[in-house]
Amino acid sequence: MSKAIVATGTAENTESSLQKVVSGPERFLQFLKEVRQEMHKVVTPTRDEVRNNTIVVLVTVFLFAAYFALVDQVIGRGIDKLFLHTTRH
């Protein structure tokens, strides 16, 4: 009885594997069609949008750089004062 179950399971696996191989090209073509449909939805930004976004990014980068430089200076001076205070005693 266990041999019959194993044989049946193997036959089902063979059929499903064969179906996957046969349906492979159809699935690939369907995938390509869906990709093409999605690519039609893609919108290229205008020159003004790209320029404006670039300006925003650059300004943001410089603001963060200034902020981190300031924080670095404050923490660095604080640590220097702490070391000077602890070495005097």
Global mean pLDDT: 87
Poorly predicted residue ranges: none
> Helicity, in percent?
over 70%
Helical stretch count?
2
Number of domains: 2
The biggest beta sheet reads:
none
- Count of extended strands: 0
Measure the end-to-end span: 90 Å
Query: How large, in whole angstroms, is the Cα Rg?
Result: 33 Å
Which shape, going by the Cα principal axes?
elongated
Order of helices and strands: HH
Taken as a percent bin, the fraction of beta residues is: under 5%
The class by helix and strand makeup works out as mainly alpha
Describe the structure in your own words.
This protein is an all-alpha fold. It folds into 2 domains: 1-42; 46-89. The chain is built from 2 helices and no strands.
Structure, briefly:
This protein is an all-alpha fold. It has helices at 2-41, 47-88.
Which keywords apply here?
2 helices; 0% strand; 89 residues; mainly alpha
Secondary structure topology:
Elements: H1 2-41, H2 47-88
